[in-house]
Specification:
The protein is mainly α. 63% of the residues lie in helices and 4% in strands. The strands form three sheets. The protein has a three-stranded antiparallel sheet with strand order 1-7-6. Strand 4 and strand 5 (279-281) form a beta hairpin. The longest helix is centred in the last third of the chain and has 35 residues, at 492-526. The radius of gyration is 31 Å and the shape is elongated.
Length: 591
């Protein structure tokens, strides 16, 4: 029951600090900090399910005393953490120093720190530069992670307090667990000396067993703060031990009251973090992403197929107008999205106009089913693969772009023949009323099977540019909006609104960048027979000039804005429904 309660309380902390999680999460290359949630991942944050794989990982680690538990429940009272922050029952100095003790004496905590945290931090740092700067940056990253670990320790302490148990009981429990050596008992005594309300009887008994009177004692000096800051596993040296202060009736560490927290230009202290001489207590607990399995990627594919096929189906009329503007420039000269729709109705009649606006729906649905099945799980897979192989922070943006590009390449092999059929059905009135299989047969008989991949190189250029810009602009524009208006990050509704707007901006930007390739591809697929990329580009230039490469840009921009906004929303919604929405697990430190 205690573990379940701590789990719920930790989930409360994470929900209360949503803006921090969004800023720090989404980094699978850093399993020790906070991966997982980008802004679009928060669109349906109130719908969270627990995958079976997460439960299996918890069960496998349940014998360690340091558990990774899935974030699977919403707290009933989100104000609990705020109430704890204003409670002086446990001082920040005590919390942070106890965290240091656990990293030394608790086997599970020490193993996690040395085998996961330290190697991950070392891998993210570039070896270039002088050794001193490298050491300072390394120490700052370790302090950042340690601050979150201290917050995890605090959650355990607050839960201990909620159960009505006394500090003397905690000291006895810790001595039984970690006090086999005299040094371990000295460190625990130092930690409990940092409390205002000390368990005096037990603490005095513990100190009397150490025979500290014979040791040389030094006053706590400013240099100790610098010494401790360079490594979160460092503890106070043997020259430090508690002495009795009769004036205030409690044990003290001589000189400690005048000590100041260590500060460095390399540290980025989160708003709300609390500083102590021994380090910072972070604003959230440690979280990491659980390991993904084939089932997860299968559900990513299903979610992607749902999002892509549905959104592309809804905007087929816009795509038809865009294609007509590109394939029949003389007939639709000077037309825009609205006038293009009107012209199709006027020339083809009500029935024919409706049929014309839905031309090519079969290859559209099938092509983008394949696109969603390959791009989304492919992006998730390659991003994690590349970031694990090259975890350096300065390479992150490049690797994320590369992940989207590689996933798009695989998708294009299925989209290319579907796009060829769609464009031919829209541009050729004789094929407009035929079914997809009939159109495939006609094209194959007229031009041979190779024509279905004539536009592959151009499609790759268009889709890769579009995909890379889509993810890049979406993330950066969302960051820009939230930086301007931080209050928008506090509510799920406003987060969703920002996601939709960011998706629309990303769609427009992606359309502008990839429009020339789209125009060339459309003209190539319009023709009967084989056509080359350069000859088609030259033909457009001679007929229409530079503006010919941007014919239909307006309708395509509207189309893309609708598509990208809808895709991100539907993809996340479907993932939530299928139970693969939140992949994070939080560190449960039991005290």
């Amino acid at each position: 029951n205690s573990a379940c309660t701590i789990s719920a309380l930790c989930a409360s902390v994470i929900c209360c600090r949503a803006s921090w999680v969004r800023r720090r999460c989404g980094r699978p290359d850093r399993p020790c900090t906070a991966p997982a949630a980008s802004r679009r991942d928060l669109a349906t944050a109130l719908v969270v399910a627990v995958p079976q794989a997460a439960a299996a990982e918890v069960q496998n680690q349940s014998n360690l005393g340091l558990l990774w538990l899935p974030i699977n429940e919403e707290p009933e009272k989100e104000e609990i953490f705020e109430r704890f922050e204003s409670d002086a029952q446990w001082s920040v100095d005590f919390i942070v120093y106890l965290a240091r003790i656990l990293l030394n004496y608790d086997a599970a905590s020490a193993s996690w720190w040395q085998t996961e945290v330290v190697p991950a931090v070392d891998a993210t740092l570039s070896p270039n530069g002088d050794a001193k700067t490298w050491q300072q940056m390394r120490a700052a990253k370790l302090r950042e992670i340690f601050a979150d670990y201290a917050a995890s320790v605090e959650i355990g302490l607050r839960r201990y307090q909620e159960e009505g148990r006394r500090k003397s009981g905690l000291l006895k429990k810790l001595v039984d667990r970690y006090g086999e050596t005299q040094e371990g008992r000295r460190q625990l005594a130092l930690a409990f000396t940092l409390l205002e309300d000390q368990p005096l009887e037990l603490l005095s008994s513990l100190l009397s067993s150490l025979q500290l009177d014979t040791r040389l004692q030094a006053v706590f000096s400013p240099a100790l703060s610098d010494y401790l800051a360079m490594d979160p596993t460092r503890l106070l040296p043997i020259t430090q031990y508690p002495v009795w202060n009769g004036g205030i009736g409690r044990w003290v560490i001589p000189g400690f009251q005048s000590a100041q927290p260590y500060k460095s230009a390399f540290d980025e202290i989160d708003n709300g973090a609390q500083l102590s001489v021994f380090g910072a207590r972070g604003t959230d607990v440690v979280v990491k992403e659980r390991k993904l399995n084939p089932r997860d990627y299968g559900l990513f594919a299903l979610s992607g197929a749902f999002g892509c096929a549905l959104t592309h189906s809804l905007v087929i009329p816009l795509d038809v107008v865009k294609t007509r503007l590109q394939t029949s420039p003389e007939q639709y000269k000077g037309a825009n999205l609205v006038s293009g729709l009107q012209l199709i109705y006027r020339e083809e009649g009500l029935g024919g106009g409706l049929q014309g606006l839905l031309s090519g729906w079969e290859p559209t649905v099938l092509g983008y089913l394949w696109y969603g099945i390959t791009v989304y799980p492919g992006y998730e897979f390659f991003k994690r693969l590349f970031l694990s192989l090259f975890p350096q922070e300065e390479l992150r943006v490049l690797l994320v772009l590369l992940s989207g590009a590689v996933a798009t390449v695989f998708a294009c092999f299925g989209v290319c023949p579907a796009e060829a059929c769609r464009i031919r059905m829209v541009a050729d009135p004789e094929l407009n009323a035929k079914g997809l299989l009939q159109v495939v047969q006609v094209i194959r008989e007229q031009d041979g099977p190779g024509v279905f991949y004539d536009g592959l190189s151009t499609l790759l250029v268009r889709q890769v540019l579009f995909g890379m810009m889509k993810f890049l602009v979406f993330d950066y524009f969302a960051d820009f909006v939230f930086d301007l208006q931080p209050a928008l990050a506090e509510r799920v509704e406003t987060q969703l609104l920002v996601s939709l707007i960011s998706g629309a901006v990303a769609g427009v930007a992606s359309s502008i960048i990839s429009q020339p390739a789209d125009s060339i591809l459309t003209r190539m697929n319009q023709k009967e027979g084989r056509a080359s990329f350069f000859s088609t580009a030259l033909e457009i230039w001679e007929e229409q000039g530079f503006g010919g490469f941007f014919a239909g840009l307006g309708s395509r921009s509207v189309w893309a804005a609708c598509i990208i906004s809808g895709q991100f929303f539907l993809y996340d919604l479907c993932k939530s429904f299928l139970g693969v929405k939140d992949l994070r697990m939080f560190l449960n430190v039991q005290v």
